[in-house]
Amino acid sequence: MSEQELLDYLLKEIEKCGFELVDVDAFPVPAAVNVDNKVMIYNSKEASPFEIAHELIHIINKDNHRGDYFDATNPQEVRANHEAVLLLWEIFEANGGSFDYFNVYINITHAPFGLAESIIKCEYTEMHKAINEIFEDEIHVKLNKEEMRQYIADYISYFDVIETINIYSFLDYYHINYNYYDMAEEEFKNILESA
Length: 195
Description:
This protein is mainly alpha-helical. The chain has helices spanning 3-16, 49-61, 75-94, 102-109, 113-142, 145-156, 167-173, 181-194, and strands at residues 20-23, 31-34, 39-42. A hairpin with a 4-residue loop joins strand 2 and strand 3. Helix 1 (3-16) runs parallel beside helix 2 (49-61) and helix 3 packs across helix 5.
C-alpha cells in the first residue's frame, strides 16, 4: 500500500463516520477535527497518514477537549498518538508488512520513529511472549519421557563410541526446547547406565 492509498483509505474511514472533509491548502496545521461539528479540515499537501490517523482516533474516541494541536501533556493527544501508531501498524501488517520492514512502515506513515518503535516493539514482545507460552504449553503436553527416550535412542544410534554427549546439541538436533534439558540429561543417564 502506498502513502497515497493509505491516505485515501483513512479519509474514507473518516467520511464513513459522518464527517465532512475540507481540504484547505493554506491551513496552518496538517489536520484538525471538530468532533462536535463533525468536520475535519486538513491540508492535503502537508498531512501525513499518521496525522490523519491521529485525527481519526480523536473521532473514534469522541475527543472534544484536546487543547492545543498535538499537546503532549493532554491524555487525549497521547492516546491518539499511541492508537494511531497501532492502527497504522494493523493496516501495514494486513497488507503484508512485518517488523522486518519497519523502516518502510515509517516511510509510508510518517509516524514519529521513536514513538512508533517503542510501541511496536512493546506489542511484538508481548505477542512473542504469549506465543511462546502457548507453544511451551503444547510442548509440555506433547513431549513425554517415552518420546524423549525414542529421540535419545535414535541419537545414540549415530555414534560408534560415546565418550561425552552435548545435550544442547541433542536438543538442537531434534528441535526440542531447552526447557527439556533436565529431562534429557536424566534420560541419557538412565539409558547409558543400563547399556
